[in-house]
UniProtKB/TrEMBL annotation:
This is 3-dehydroquinate dehydratase. It comes from Brevibacillus borstelensis AK1. The gene is aroQ. The lineage of its organism: Bacteria, Bacillati, Bacillota, Bacilli, Bacillales. The active site is at Y23, H100. Pfam families: DHquinase_II. Pathway: Metabolic intermediate biosynthesis; chorismate biosynthesis; chorismate from D-erythrose 4-phosphate and phosphoenolpyruvate: step 3/7.
């Protein structure tokens, strides 16, 4: 059975309200429900955690080792400077995919660099919330469980 941890960083609790022209009108609950539906089809398990606090996300990553097969993370603004999240992902040695709803490379220059990218198996950017489902399907294929 596939078990995946879905992590969402700061301000993603405001999906559907915050800059809908950039992030869309769908909510974080919509994202989670969509992935839960896929996991139900596969008889898998999805755990979700959203936090505006770096340490909460790090603790969730640490707890994932030995519990989950992989991680999908949208680190939000932590993408650009959180070496602590980067190191946590590296430490647990779980396949991880980084997701961004908007095309960060077409936005402000500070969004172009990810300190997380070197320790993940891939990134999905600019596909809206569809990117989360692509990440889940890609992660399942990489792990070999569905």
């Amino acid at each position: 059975m596939l078990s995946v941890l879905l992590l969402n960083g700061p301000n993603l609790n405001l999906l559907g309200q915050r800059e809908p022209d950039v992030y869309g009108r769908e909510t974080l609950q919509d994202v989670v429900a969509r992935l839960e539906k896929v996991m139900e089809e596969w008889n898998g398990r999805l755990e979700h955690c959203q936090s505006n606090h770096e340490g909460v996300l790090i603790d969730a990553i640490h707890r994932a080792k030995g519990v989950h097969d992989g991680i999908i993370i949208n680190p939000g603004a932590f993408t650009h400077y959180s070496y602590a999240i980067r190191d946590a992902i590296s430490a647990v040695e779980l396949p991880t995919i980084e997701v961004h709803i908007s095309n960060v490379h077409a936005r402000e220059s500070f969004r172009h660099h990810s300190v997380i990218a070197p320790v993940v198996i891939g990134q999905i950017v600019g596909l809206g919330i569809d990117g989360y489902e692509w990440a889940l399907r890609s992660l399942a294929n990489k792990i070999g469980k569905k």
